[in-house]
């Protein structure tokens, strides 16, 4: 490994010392600076090969200084360290032309590797002139997510094909959108297609469009998703569900950069950035011959593996609070979580990942009457009975019936050999009716006509029931149920 001259800029003396000693042990010559002014004084005489700088410095922003630094010292690689571990910082670092970005706390080995590749003169990431990126909806600062942010930051300015892998609900579509929104195609369309949701025999016409009369039922010419996404990004979700003949056609389009519509002859140029995603084990599908190996390699140019929520427990509190804020912004009652509640959330397995957490937070926002949600409320939702995997899959009312049945079993069991008090039927319906009305109203944002339709009852019946149960319908709109 080649040794170099490294200038470390950080206002924290402890960090300067740790980094200096670690790099000296690897044979580098190290100088340090505590501020931008210091950096300006030292850099001339020291002539570093690499600068490592913190972002927040007493006299300015180290990241904002990177373009100036590289203007004065062309080709000088700058490695940025930052404690603000958001996607926006990673992207800003790339945009300012930083050679690499390491979130704090960093690993000294990782820093050593970054210095080695900076010295080896590996091409720095492309510089993208651009405006300040907006803070993105990707929440979480765990190491696993930081690795994701760094990859996103590297690919936004390019047209490289990205393959996003991860369990259902881990945020694959959100990542695809972030890549689109941060890149030069922002002003052009982002078109998402879910391969699992299209009937097999319609996939090709859905993707590439068809000419008038191309097949039975093809009345008029129709533009496909590739055409709709022209100049923008095409997000192919659940790519593992694509039938093999459509895979062949997709591969050809990716290789040739043009396609023909079903029934058409004239090739159409495809100026589309493709991002694909799957929650399947696609490498296994390749091994089993269910997914074309050549297409896999063509899509897998830059893989992004999204961690399951259980692998990033450190993010759960921030995510949960974010979803409660969002629920409040949508007009649901504003709620907070206490620390014990967050600890209880962190112990859950989250088979449905971030989506499951988001749904739980929305549910709690309406179900819990107190302003602060405690561990007991979480336990009631995630407890041994509720946490049965697959108990209530999304939108499956039979799952709901099972959950209710389990509660009833527990209710009867709680009386031992005795029977519950008489009049159970009416009491039970009365118990269920109030939360059902409140939740439906909240889901319909306080719109009684919509809530009545959701419930499948007449609006006057709903109004009467609300009055009987003393439920204030405007509370769902105000968010103060
Ligand atoms: N890091 C994150 N920060 C904030 N919200 C997130 C994050 N990840 C996921 N979400 C939210 O979780 C939900 C599920 O995310 P998304 O639809 O992107 O998942 P997915 O992996 O594409 O799921 P599927 O495989 O089922 O299509 C969305 O509402 C999304 O906004």
Automatic annotation (TrEMBL):
Lineage here is: Bacteria, Pseudomonadati, Pseudomonadota, Alphaproteobacteria, Sphingomonadales
Q: Which residues carry this modification: 4-aspartylphosphate?
A: 54
Which cellular compartments is it found in?
Cytoplasm
Specify whether Lyase is a keyword of the entry.
no
Superkingdom of this protein's organism: Bacteria
> Pfam families from the entry?
AAA_lid_14, HTH_8, Response_reg, Sigma54_activat
Record keywords: Activator, ATP-binding, Cytoplasm, DNA-binding, Nitrogen fixation, Nucleotide-binding, Phosphoprotein, Repressor, Transcription, Transcription regulation, Two-component regulatory system
Q: Which residues form a coiled coil?
A: none
**Domain named Sigma-54 factor interaction: which ranges?**
138-366
Name this polypeptide is given: DNA-binding transcriptional regulator NtrC
**Residue ranges annotated for the Response regulatory domain, each copy included:** 5-119
Function description? Member of the two-component regulatory system NtrB/NtrC, which controls expression of the nitrogen-regulated (ntr) genes in response to nitrogen limitation. Phosphorylated NtrC binds directly to DNA and stimulates the formation of open promoter-sigma54-RNA polymerase complexes.
């Amino acid at each position: 490994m080649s040794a170099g001259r490294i200038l470390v800029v950080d206002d924290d003396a402890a960090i300067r010392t740790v980094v200096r000693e670690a790099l000296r042990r690897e044979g580098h010559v190290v100088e340090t600076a505590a501020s931008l002014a210091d950096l300006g004084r030292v850099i001339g005489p020291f002539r570093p090969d690499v600068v490592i700088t913190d972002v927040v410095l007493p006299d300015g922003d180290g990241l904002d200084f990177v373009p100036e630094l590289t203007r004065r010292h062309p080709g000088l690689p700058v490695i940025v360290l930052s404690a603000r571990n958001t996607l926006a910082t990673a992207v800003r670092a790339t945009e300012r032309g930083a050679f690499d970005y390491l979130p704090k706390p960093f690993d000294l080995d990782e820093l050593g590797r970054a210095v080695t590749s900076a010295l080896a003169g590996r091409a720095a990431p492309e510089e993208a002139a651009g405006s300040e990126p907006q803070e993105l909806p990707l929440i979480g600062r765990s190491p696993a997510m930081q690795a994701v942010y760094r990859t996103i930051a590297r690919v936004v300015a390019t047209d490289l094909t990205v393959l996003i892998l991860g369990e259902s609900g881990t945020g694959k579509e959100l990542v695809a959108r972030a890549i689109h929104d941060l890149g030069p195609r922002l002003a052009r369309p982002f078109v998402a297609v879910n391969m699992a949701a299209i009937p097999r025999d319609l996939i090709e016409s859905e993707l590439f469009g068809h000419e008038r009369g191309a097949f039975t039922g093809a009345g008029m010419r129709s533009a496909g998703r590739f055409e709709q996404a022209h100049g923008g990004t095409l997000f192919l979700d659940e790519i593992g569900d694509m039938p093999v003949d459509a895979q062949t056609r997709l591969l050809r389009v990716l290789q040739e950069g043009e396609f023909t519509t079903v029934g058409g002859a004239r090739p159409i140029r495809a100026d589309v950035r493709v991002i694909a995603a799957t929650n399947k084990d696609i490498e296994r599908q390749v091994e089993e011959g269910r997914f074309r190996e050549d297409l896999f390699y063509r899509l897998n140019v830059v893989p992004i593996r999204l961690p399951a929520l259980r692998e990033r427990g450190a993010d759960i509190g921030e995510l949960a609070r974010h979803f409660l804020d969002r629920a409040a912004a949508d007009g649901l009652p504003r709620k907070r979580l206490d620390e014990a509640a967050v600890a209880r959330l962190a112990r859950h397995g989250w088979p449905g990942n971030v989506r499951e957490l988001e749904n739980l937070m929305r549910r709690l926002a309406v179900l819990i009457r107190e302003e602060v949600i405690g561990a007991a409320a979480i336990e009631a939702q995630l407890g041994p009975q509720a946490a049965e995997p697959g108990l209530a899959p999304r939108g499956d009312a039979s799952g709901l019936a099972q959950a209710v049945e389990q509660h009833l079993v527990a209710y009867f069991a709680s009386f031992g050999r005795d029977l519950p008090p008489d009049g159970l039927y009416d009491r039970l319906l009365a118990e269920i009716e109030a939360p059902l009305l409140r939740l439906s109203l909240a889901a319909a944002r306080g719109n009684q006509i919509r809530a009545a339709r959701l419930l499948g009852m007449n609006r006057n019946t709903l109004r009467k029931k609300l009055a009987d149960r003393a439920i204030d319908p405007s509370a769902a709109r105000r968010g103060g149920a």
